[in-house]
Amino acid sequence: MAIDFSQETKSGSSGAAAHKSSIFQPSIITGMVGGGLGFLFGHWAGNAIGGGYQQVVGSGQNDIAIVLGYLFAVVGWFAGLGALNYPLKKMLGFEPENVEHISEPGWGKYFRYTTDHKVVGVQYLFGMLVYFFTAGLLALAIRTELLSPTHHIWGPDTYLEIVGEHGTMMMMMMTSVVLGPFGNYVIPLMIGSKKVAFPRLEAASFWFTPISYFILLSALWQGGFQSGWTSYAPLSVQQGVGQDGYIFGFGLQGLSMICAGTNIVVTIINYRAPGMTWGRLNVMGWSMVSLGFTMILSVPVLIDGLYVLTLDRTAQTSLLYGAHGGSSFLWENLFWFFGHPEVYLLAIPGFGMVAEIVPVFARKPVFGYKTAAAGMIGLAILSFFVWQHHLFQSGMNPDMRPLFMLTTELISIPTGFIYLVGMGTLWRARIRLTVPMLFMLGVYFNFLFGGVTGVYVSDVPINVTVHGSFFVMAHFHYTIMGGVIFAFFGAIYYYTPLVTGYQLSEKLGKIHFWSMIIAFNSTFLPLFAVGLLGQPRRVFEYAARLQTLNDWVSISSYVLGLSLTFFVVTWMWQIVVTRKKSVRDPWSSRSLEWHVDSYPPPPYNFETIPVVVAGPYEYADPDALPMADIVVANAGRDVARESVR
Amino acid sequence: MAKFVLEDSRSEEAGRSALVKILSVWIVVSIIGMALVWFVLGPHLAPGTMTDQAQGAQFDIKFVSTLVVPVLLFVWFFFGYSIMKWRVRPGEDGTLPAANISGNSKAQGAWYIITTTLVLGLAAFGTYFLIAPAGAGGGEGASPIWTPGTTKLLQVQVIAQQWRFTYRWPQFGGMETTGIELPVNTEIQFNVTSLDVIHDFWAYQLGVKADANPDYNNVAFTKTLATGNFTVRCDELCGIWHGAMFNYGKVVSQQQFEQWATNMEQQNAPVTKLLPKYSLTYTPSYSGAGGGYYNTNVDPNANL
Q: Given Cys at both, which of A38, A620, A632, B180 links B97, Cβ 3.0 to 4.6 Å?
């Protein structure tokens, strides 16, 4: 695919074609119709092909029908969305309309396959909130079951279905929680570009996610999968057709990550404005490059593993069966070769967001800019060399253990860089404790627990006690929820004025922050003790002596749920009902994204490509030039700057 | 335009004075915190002292927890002091410049050296305490490389299946028991395998954890030091009754163990005759329920 370096904008007659409003115009509705028809066709074909197979007749379970159903549902979904029109016409030698929806008024564009990076960013934002809250509700269902060690709300099968859905949805969807909404929306603005390198890939990356979400949820109606998000074989081979939902949902999210990663990496490399050297690139840009490369290199291994699992479940291969020449260790290795970089796919953008926002509210340069970039690149590289620490007790070749213990502990060094950057940036700073800043400081506070407990789990002798226990569960919730999810909410508060044009209430935001951070720590801190005291993960029954701690955790989780509900209600209220207009550059940021003509930014972002003449973090230099020579067409409209404290 | 002048509170001198204060308080509080963790919390930490491996794990957890104290405190004090001292007060213009520091080679260099030293030290520490107590109680696979310095080992085979553990005793006629008792002051070799999916044998108080894989023997060692009860739980998700896959065991005196084992051998003799020959692995059943282990005439995977 050739990259369009010209950055020409195409809003002429072809763009106008997109404005025709019709129920037949491709949208999410036609996508759903296409998906439904595709599923029915695939299911029929699967029954026609595999209905007579011995294992299908014997068990009454036809995975081939489900897998083909999902496969054609995806084809139908994208056909219905109109995503295939452009490439098919090109392949057939026609000159297709360039339907970009760039300047289309109204809400319709948010429900369509669009090549406008800002629309895709907003689609991602709402998508991610839906996925996060769905998986969050499942977490509350888990905690409700664990209120009692012996009395049950759910059956053991339903409980494990909920556990599997929660884990899989969180781990697969939240990889894009920063890249999706903010990477796609902000990065082109931040680097002074009018567009992204691969707008159709970017759009595809988003539209993979809703169908992935629906397919994963559909597993619940198919009996679910009781194998968790790790889905170790042969348990995952033994499962019913709900497991196919896991495979397909995860696989589609993998494709989404590859598309998103490719687009963001190429965009940053090729679409930086003149003067936007690597040394002036925002730290968030560095995090996105590190993230994108990690996605591109790790996700194919997951897809390979899922393919192997699908073959074992449908074509009756035995790649994951020891007795027939395969090995259950194959899945464990393929899965974790992706699975550990996956953890950093979650952490790195969170760090990028933190390092991006803290200087704005500290009025100082990023301390150790190169150290910050090196920290994120170091995390990305090292993340490929640690996967076997998940398998310390698995029985794999033991002489690799010291090596994997060393590589895992080495990760503390680039992680430490991120803390050094934060501490240095706050030193002798002018700290404005705004809501976004509080969330970023919250990331530092929470991640510290996740980081130091990482030393416990990476130490093989200690791992014997904590592996597979609630200690590990608390550890990764501190790194992921305490890290990237706090960064995500902070970024929502930070970028809402840019994306919507409306300013959010500091008071409501602070209520949300304080209730969330207290409830979060109250939920997850005791789980370290629960794990150390011997409670394994994913159990519906536990020792009676641990009930008090578990009840404390469950009640805290409800408070956490209330805090997040408070956010949704107040945030939606402010952007839909009260709609208080934002002043220009409300945070007094130097970064390019805030110096566009209007909020939300106009189509194609900049009237002319800016020429960057200074760095984004020269807050402490009173004589610093603005970052670029941006021509603001209607400057003066809202120029009465109000510093937000 | 008047030249901007940074306030005294954000000057280099103020920074130096702040650093001295932070470090002074940090050193004192860290020493107190480390002592509390080492001497007060340490002896109560998991997983206890019932075996050599459990004792080793407890020591490791105590050591790392003690080291974590100054790390946590340093970051907390640094962040806390900075926020308290240099936050924008009401009425102050929060958009004015602060100290123009984009790096400090000495501070950065010191940070790199200290974190790298700490990390390498922890890796060396972990490696030593992995090797010295014969694999630290973790599953070492079929060919363990860190073994106890004796050949006098009590062999216990742990057979996991959906959803129970049973134990075979090759030194007691290959009998199979549903419970487990172990003699005190004895080196034990667990041979852990599965008849269906992946499980994990987690004997919490023994400091032992090893995955039970189908078609595979996973060896873990422990040396019992004290009598008492221990809990066995499955620690890898293995299907719907995973949460109910647990039982209890005892470490007893050698005499009591001999008596128990002899009784069990006699009591189980009719069953032992029907069991497959003792082996380090058995043909697993991927369709569940123990498969061919209990009825060797049936192909356990016929319905797959």
A: A620
CB contact under 8 A, B98 and A468: no
Any B CB within 8 A of A83 CB: no
How wide is the angle at C-alpha A615 spanned by C-alphas A609 and A619, nearest 5°?
125
Each residue of A315-332: pLDDT tens digit?
888 899 876 788 999 999
Q: For residue B194, what are the domain limits?
A: 154-293
Q: Is residue A168 part of a domain?
A: yes
Helical spans, DSSP H, in A222-279? 235-238, 242-270
Number of domains, chain B: 2
d(CA B227, CA B235): 24
Note the pLDDT tens digit of each residue in A463-516: 999 999 999 999 999 999 999 999 999 999 999 999 999 999 999 999 999 999
How many domains would you assign to chain A?
A: 1
Closest residue in A to B238 (Cα–Cα) = A235
What are the Cα distances from residue A64, in Å, to A45, A52, A53, A245? 9, 11, 10, 12
Interface of A with B in 320-379 (CB under 8 A): 321-323, 328-329, 361-371
Clarify whether residues B282 and B234 are in a common domain: yes
Residue B290 has pLDDT above 80, yes or no: no
CATH number at residue A246: 1.20.210.10
Q: Which of A126-135, A255-264, A290-299, B285-294 has the lowest mean pLDDT?
A: B285-294
Q: Inform me whether the pLDDT recorded for A562 exceeds 80.
A: yes
Supply the pTM of this predicted model. 0.93
- Mean of the per-residue pLDDT values for chain A? 91
ipTM above 0.90, yes or no: yes
Residue A608 C-alpha, separation from nearest chain B C-alpha, in angstroms: 28
In a domain, A562, yes or no: yes
Q: Does B28 touch chain A (CB under 8 A)?
A: no
Residue A92 within any structural domain of the chain: no
Residues B15 and B76 in one domain: yes
- Position A55 in a domain: no
Residue A471 near residue A531, CB atoms below 8 Å:
yes
Across the interface, of B86, B104, B125, the residue whose CB is closest to A430 is: B86
Least confident segment among A322-326, B29-33, B192-196, B254-258: A322-326
User: What is the C-alpha to C-alpha distance for residues A296 and A254, in angstroms, rounded to an integer?
Assistant: 10
Is the Cα torsion angle A539, A541, A544, A550 positive or negative in sign? positive
Task: Note whether A311 contacts B: Cβ–Cβ < 8 A.
Answer: no
